[in-house]
Amino acid sequence: MNLRRILALATRIVHQFRRDRRTLFLLFVVPVLVLSLLAWIYRGDGASPVTLAIVNEGQSPLAAQIVTGLQEDASLTVREMDAAAAMRALDQGEVDAVLTLPADLSLRPGGPPQQIEVTLDGSDPSTTSAVMGALTRTLPETVVRAVNPAGLPIQIEPRFLHGGPEFDRLDYLAPVIIGFFVFFFVFLLTSVSFLRERSEGSIERLIVSPLGRGEIVLGYMLGFTLFAALQAAVTVLFAVYALRIHYVGNLGLVFLFTLLLTLGAVNLGIFLSTFARTELQVVQFIPLVIVPQALLSGILWPIDSLPEPLQWLAHALPLTYAAEALRGVMIRGDGLAALWVNLAVLAGFAVLMIVLGTSTLRREAA
Amino acid sequence: MEPIVEVENVSKQFGPITALAGVTLDVPSGIIYGLLGPSGSGKTTLIRLIAGAMRASAGQVRVFGRPQPSRANAARIGYMTQAAALYPDLSLRENLTFFGTLYGLDDRRLRERVEAIAAEVELADRLDSPLHTFSGGMRQRASLACALLHEPDLLILDEPTVGLDPVLRRAFWERFRRLAAAGRTLIVSSHVMDEADRCDRLAFLREGRLLATGSPSELRQITEQANLEDAFLALAAGTGSLLEGGVR
């Protein structure tokens, strides 16, 4: 092992990407853009998502109180109309649901429960659940207020161990997005640059030079680790200081987990590039390597909510462990004591990939 | 004197394909040794085996007395691959510096050699241009510069003059002659027969087999032909038994 040769290779990789504006954009601007977009989606002042038409057939006091209660619900836009207009509006998509309050609606303690009819469009499950959620949240409260102006006699008082009442989806997603981008871009860039090394024949020059196989792998890891660390720094700083995401962790641990993920991704790229002859074929690995990890590693859905066989699969994917660890560090402030399993699994993945990556280089000279 | 390169009954298989079959030849020190043959004759395979880019399936290649591939030999060999095989995004200086560092030149010597070699191949004014702005001929000169940078004792050049205009081609061969005169050993492959006369010794290859080896005049003599192209044709058509294994 010769440090000067390893550094020469790492420096070369830095030089190659330094001038490549498209790649730099992909590495440093795209994650920031995606995070900003997510921030806009989850935190922007969207119009009230659900529009409810109320058909008030009678004018009972209870009905009036229900209407007022629903109007006060921030997640609903309430419009009163007659039955025919409401059904037309629902049909044309102007409203999402129609609530019909019967003429004889009144409180009859001890009597059979009264039915209030809700007509839903039903073609969009998320709208359906938003409407039903708002109604089940607001109706009982409103009905109770008719008898007791103080509202429900029992109130829930939440206290948070981590996060807080203002904690949102972005806080939950950002730590994982950082890990995902590092893995995705490092994998993609290593495979493509290794493929070029092969297709342009320069790998042949490296192999006959005094540079050893291990030195090639180390040089590549060093070069890409530098870019991955820079990317993680840009993304973390942007998320914490510009987007003000919830962050209580240790920056050193964020970099440690990012580093382990990078080492795995570089060598996975070297290994898989052996099975590709063109850059298009490298791109064809993305659905195989990246998409399952994006779906299963707990980025979009908690792993506990997956069917059991998929949970097993999720626990075979490195990004699962990185996502869990980054979330633990950034949201809960976990230290290494809590995350040593994740650390061990990611280190194991990196070592396995280094062995595979080096062995493909050895085969090169066969 | 012991030959620089000894190829002993070497064969190379790529799956079901035999690229080289039982080739034996020696390359003495300080000469230009030409590997001549049409494309697909096994020249590049033989060159890659000598350079240490892969292992023989059977037989042995020894360079400087050590079996190839050998890490100890690597720094004494300069290898110019058939394609330019450099980094097009990098400038000539960055390419040269990269390869120079791999070959263990220290910083001061590296700076000297980069300037010297760029002047030598007449690219001194383009040192800081990225290689993708170079013409084919300039790229080939850059590739030669990378192979010469660390002043190797053995220079292995795979079709170095292919695609060059006649003026550049002559300049390349004059450079090769100067290097041989300075005591370096050159192995040069070519499929152009009019280059054969510029070599001190030749090996004729066809379909992975050695047809004959010898100096250009020896090869003319044994085939009783006036030019080397006819000599090659006579050898290719002739009775293998007489010539196989080489005329030393």
Give the biggest beta sheet of chain B. Answer: 6 strands, mixed
User: Could you give the count of β-strands of chain A?
Assistant: 4
The count of DSSP E runs of length 2 or more, i.e. the number of strands of chain B, is 10
Distance between the termini of chain B: 15 Å
The most extensive interface, with participating residues per chain, is: A-B, 26 and 32 residues
The global form of chain B is globular
Radius of gyration of chain A: 28 Å
Residue runs with pLDDT of under 50 for 5 or more positions of chain A: none
Secondary structure: helix percent of chain B:
25-40%
Produce the secondary structure layout.
The complex is a heterodimer of chains A (366) and B (248).
Chain A: H1 3-18, H2 21-43, E1 50-56, H3 61-72, E2 76-80, H4 83-91, E3 97-101, E4 117-120, H5 125-147, H6 169-199, H7 202-208, H8 213-242, H9 251-273, H10 279-283, H11 286-289, H12 291-296, H13 308-314, H14 318-332, H15 336-364
Parallel strand pairs in A: 1-2, 1-3
Antiparallel strand pairs in A: 3-4
Helix pairs in contact in A: 1-8, 2-6, 2-8, 3-5, 6-8, 6-9, 6-14, 8-9, 8-15, 9-14, 9-15, 14-15
Chain B: E1 5-14, E2 17-27, E3 32-36, H1 43-51, E4 58-63, E5 66-67, H2 71-74, E6 77-80, H3 92-102, H4 107-120, H5 136-148, E7 154-157, H6 166-181, E8 185-190, E9 201-206, E10 209-214, H7 216-223, H8 228-237, H9 240-243
Parallel strand pairs in B: 3-8, 3-9, 6-7, 7-8
Antiparallel strand pairs in B: 1-2, 1-4, 4-5, 9-10
What does this structure look like?
The complex is a heterodimer of chains A (366) and B (248). By secondary structure, chain A is mainly alpha-helical. Chain A is built from 15 helices and 4 strands. Chain A has helices at residues 3-18, 21-43, 61-72, 83-91, 125-147, 169-199, 202-208, 213-242, 251-273, 279-283, 286-289, 291-296, 308-314, 318-332, 336-364, and strands at 50-56, 76-80, 97-101, 117-120. In chain A, helix 3 (61-72) links the parallel strand 1 (50-56) and strand 2. In chain A, helix 2 (21-43) packs antiparallel against helix 6 (169-199). Chain A is elongated and about 95 Å long. The mean pLDDT of chain A is 84. In chain B, helix 3 (92-102) packs across helix 4 and helix 7 crosses helix 8 (228-237). In chain B, helix 6 links the parallel strand 7 (154-157) and strand 8 (185-190). Chain B is globular and about 55 Å long. Chain B has a 6-stranded mixed β-sheet, sandwiched between helices. Chain B has a 4-stranded antiparallel β-sheet with strand order 2-1-4-5, covered by helices on one side. Chain B has helices at residues 43-51, 71-74, 92-102, 107-120, 136-148, 166-181, 216-223, 228-237, 240-243, and strands at 5-14, 17-27, 32-36, 58-63, 66-67, 77-80, 154-157, 185-190, 201-206, 209-214. Chain B is 36% helix and 24% strand. At the A-B interface, helix 1 and helix 7 of A face helix 3 of B.
